[in-house]
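Record type: monomer structure entry
Structure origin: computed from sequence
Chain ID: A
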Amino acid sequence: MKIKVLLAEDDLNLGLVISDQLKSDGYSVALSCDGVEALQRFNEEIFHLCVFDVMMPKKDGFTLAKDIRKLNSEIPILFLTAKSMTEDKVVGFNSGGDDYLTKPFSIEELQLRIKALLKRVNIKTEALEEKLIQLGIYLFDVENYTLKHNGELKTLTKKEAHILKVLYKFKNQVVPREVFLNAVWGQDDYFIGRSFDVFITKLRKYLKEEPTIKISNIHGVGFKFEIKE
């Protein structure tokens, strides 16, 4: 399996140049043009490294990194920016970044920074997530968005499956609403929050025959996916 890079760069020409070079270096690259799209992609696929432009529409690179860190504390994050001031670098590192590359930069420098980050975390490219998850009497197929029970197959929507995946990832923990909203929709606002409540109600219905599973609403905070294993 190739090392997979999530690249977020709103300058499409630069993004394509970086993407093409990394692909020629043997990496698999997913290019997003804004922070919201990048966060959605992060929740949908497995990545080994993130390369984020700082100044992007909808969600800037620093905010994107903070949201990523709520979901994954270990994946390396490299910032690309036109700013070189020390205080900007401090903000970047405080946002969860691991390294900082100031524009304009050479492709050779980018290659070296990426290699150094991957070496630092001793990245392994085998599958990092379960594809089939046993939820009591239900079998959750993460890739195909299905729940199986007693020979019956329930096909989930893409968002239902992603919400369930996040719930399971943080099982038996209280998770703030904003983590779910950012992970699945890429942003947090009132209308998305109302839609999210509807999805939670549906998931409770789908899993109602398993008494060891409970999705609790922690008032004013978020949700807790309780499962006895």
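Annotation 1: The chain has two domains: 4-121, 132-227.
Annotation 2: The chain has a mean pLDDT of 88.
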